[in-house]
Amino acid sequence: MTSAQRPVALITGPSSGIGAGFARALAGKGYDLVLVARNRAALDALATELQQRFGASSEVLAVDLATVEGRRAVVERLARGVDMLVNNAGFGTTGEFWTADPALLQSQLDVNVTAVLELTRAALPVMIDAGRGDIVNVASVAGLLPGRGSTYSASKAYVVSFTEGLAGGLAGTGVRVQALCPGFVRTEFHRRAGIDMSSTPDILWLDVDQVVRTSLADLEAGKVRSIPGVQYKVLATAGRLVPQNLVRKLTNTFGNGRGRT
Ligand SMILES: NC(=O)c1ccc[n+]([C@@H]2O[C@H](COP(=O)([O-])OP(=O)(O)OC[C@H]3O[C@@H](n4cnc5c(N)ncnc54)[C@H](OP(=O)(O)O)[C@@H]3O)[C@@H](O)[C@H]2O)c1
C-alpha cells in the first residue's frame, strides 16, 4: 500500500464518461491515479489535467482489457498495491444476440466480467494484508431488472451478484466493496453502442458528477449497493416488489428491450 505518500486509485475506463468523473473526483480528494484504457492520447490528456488542477500524478496503462495480455499488465500493477480500484470499463452493443458478432460478444464478456473478476482478485490480497482498501465495481440498473437486453444485462447482473457476495466474505477485513448501479448517464456509452436515446425522457438522465458523488458517499456510508438518483431507487425497489413476469413486460415495453445485446 502507499500510505506514506498520497493514496493511489487505479481506474479502468477513465478516457471518457463515468471513469473520467471518478478520476477527477479522486484526484480532488488527494489520490494519485493509475489510468487504464485503450485510448492513450485521452489518458495522457487526463493525466496532464489532473496534474495541473489537483497536483495528482498519474501512471498511464494503455491496454485493451478484452485481451489476456492487457488484463495481465493491470493485474501485475495491482499486485504491487493500490488503495482503491474502480472497475468501470465496460460497453453495450446493439442488434439481436443471434445476429451479433460472436467475437464482439466475447470481448464484451471479457471487459464487463472477466476483467472485473481478475482485477478484483489481484487487488485484494494487498488490501486485506493492509486491513483497508476500497473497490467500486460499476454495474448498472440493467443488472437489477429483468427483460432489458441480454448479454449486457447479464454481465451487469454478474457484477452485482459477485460484489454483494464478496462484501459478505470481506466483512471484518477493513476492505470495502460496492456495486454501483447507475441508470442512464450522459456519457459516450450509448453513441458507442449505437443505441438511439432520443426518446428517453429527461427525468431518466443522470450526470456523471451525480453518479460519482453518490458512489463515494455510499462507500463512506458502508452501502454495498449504490443506486444514484431517486427515480432509479424507486424503480429498483419496484422491480423487487412487482412480479418478475410483469417487470419483464414493462421493461420490454418502456425500455425498448429488443435490439439490445
Ligand atoms: N452511460 C450509462 O448510461 C451507463 C449506465 C449504467 C452503467 N454504465 C456503465 O458505466 C461504465 C462506464 O461507461 P460510460 O457510461 O462512462 O461509457 P463511456 O463514456 O463509453 O466509457 C467507457 C470506458 O470504458 C473503456 N473501455 C471500453 N472498452 C475497453 C477495453 N476493451 N479495454 C479498456 N477499456 C475499455 C473506454 O476506454 P477506451 O475506449 O479508451 O478503451 C472508456 O473509457 C460501463 O461499465 C458501463 O456499462 C453506464
Give the mean pLDDT. Answer: 93
For the termini, the CA-CA separation is 39 Å
Bound molecules: NADP nicotinamide-adenine-dinucleotide phosphate
Q: In one word, what is the shape?
A: globular
Order of helices and strands: EHEHEHEHEHEEHEHEHH
Strand order of the largest sheet: 3-2-1-4-5-6-9
The description of the largest β-sheet is:
7 strands, parallel
CATH level-four homologous superfamily name: NAD(P)-binding Rossmann-like Domain
Q: Please identify, by name, the CATH architecture.
A: 3-Layer(aba) Sandwich
The quaternary state of the protein chains shown equals single chain
Strand content: 5-15%
Give the number of domains.
Answer: 1
What does this structure look like?
The protein is α/β, with parallel strands linked by helices and 261 residues long. It has one domain: Rossmann fold (3-Layer(aba) Sandwich). The protein has nine helices and nine strands. It has helices at residues 17-28, 40-54, 68-79, 102-130, 151-169, 189-193, 208-220, 230-241, 244-254, and strands at 8-12, 32-37, 58-62, 84-87, 133-138, 175-180, 184-185, 205-206, 225-226. The strands form two sheets. The protein has a seven-stranded parallel beta sheet, with helices on both faces. It has a two-stranded parallel sheet with strand order 7-8. Helix 6 (189-193) links the parallel strand 7 and strand 8 (205-206). Helix 1 packs across helix 7 (208-220), helix 3 packs parallel to helix 4 (102-130) and helix 4 (102-130) packs parallel to helix 5. The protein is globular, with a radius of gyration of 18 Å. The mean pLDDT is 93. It binds NADP nicotinamide-adenine-dinucleotide phosphate. Residues 12-19, 37-39, 42, 64-66, 88-91, 111, 138, 140, 182, 184-185, 187-189, 192 line the site of NADP nicotinamide-adenine-dinucleotide phosphate (NAP).
